[in-house]
Structures are given as C-alpha cells and as structure tokens.
Amino acid sequence: MNPIATITMQDGKVMRLELLPDKAPNTVNSFIALANSGYYDGLCFHRIIADFMIQGGDPDGRGTGGPGYSIKGEFRANGFKANDLSHQPGVISMARAQNPDSAGSQFFICVADDRFLDGQYAAFGKCADKESLAAAVALSKVRTGYMDRPVEPVIMKSVKVETFGKEFPTPEKV
User: What is the CATH number of the domain that holds 72?
Assistant: First the structure.
C-alpha cells in the first residue's frame, strides 16, 4: 500500500493524495519528512492559476522560500528515467527554480491536462479519489490578484502522511 497524504484545509476541505515512491522515491521521502514534522501546517497555497494548478509549500508564502535544502530532480530531463508519471488532473509534483536540482518544499497539484510539464518536473503522486480532485479544482477557482496570489489566503491547516507502518528514509539532499 502506498503512503496517503491528507491535506486538511482551514475551511475543512480535504485532499487525499496517493504518493508513488516507485516514480520518485527521494521526492516522496522528502515530502513525508516535511509533512510529518508539521512543516506544511499553516502554510498557504500562494500561487493559483485556474485551469492549470495550485501551488503551496513556501514557508514565506511568496514562492521564493524552502526548507533550507534542495533535492535532486527526479524527472527525465534530469537523467532520472524511472519517473513516467504524467502531469494530468490530480497529479502532485515538485515546484523548482531553473536549476533542475532546486526542489525543496514547494509542490503543485495539477487541475488540468498539463502534460507539457512531463519530464521537466518530479511528479510524485496523484489525488486518491474524485472528491480530492474536486477540492483541488475548486481551490483553483478562487479569486487571485498580482502574481496569481489568492486575494484571500488559502491555508493548509495540516498536512500528514499515513505510511501504513512502512519506514521511509531521510531524504538525500544536494
């Protein structure tokens, strides 16, 4: 059984995501470590683009922050061949800067067919059910302003990962 991440929003909406360690093992390790340490609790989705994606995980809430480390990008363009997960609605993937090994804590959830991102970003899971995808799509419709920031904050009350008793190692950092 794969780990299940549960994102509980401040407004009570819930998104459950099945993490796929066979596609991006170190990315999954990092997400689990951050989530279960409470890192994401209280952070916002700081960038929301309707019919594209919702992005969160920046402790500064501006799209420039991270956990103080980076991980190697697990995607084809970076020499990682095992990840063939396509950026379709409901897929969760790591955000990054121009450097392919710059991912840290920021992630995005696709709400549309975003396959043009395939091979360029480390997709590492997908919505576990239709209700979770519907919640992500609903979040993508909030009113936004400058730099795609929500006008009203969209806060993750908590993010936790159930590993079903399986141990996941500390992520390898670059």
Answer: 2.40.100.10
pLDDT in tens, 3-61: 999 999 999 999 999 999 999 999 999 999 999 999 999 999 999 999 999 999 999 99
Is the distance from CB of 160 to CB of 41 less than 8 angstroms? no
Is the Cβ–Cβ distance between 126 and 19 less than 8 Å?
Answer: no
The boundaries of the domain holding residue 93 are 4-162
Distance of CA 95 to the CA centre of its chain: 7
Alpha carbons within 13 A on the beta-carbon side of 148: 16
List the beta strands (DSSP E) in the chain. 4-9, 14-19, 45-49, 53-56, 91-94, 107-110, 123-127, 156-162
d(CA 28, CA 167): 12
State pLDDT tens for residues 29-40.
999 999 999 999
| Structure tokens that stand for 28 in this block | 């999954």
Percent of the chain with pLDDT strictly greater than 70: 100
Q: Is residue 169 part of a domain?
A: no
Domain count, the chain: 1
Taken in order 83, 88, 90, 92, the sign of the CA dihedral is: positive
Span 69-95, average pLDDT: 97
Question: In this predicted structure, what is the pLDDT of residue 160?
Answer: 98
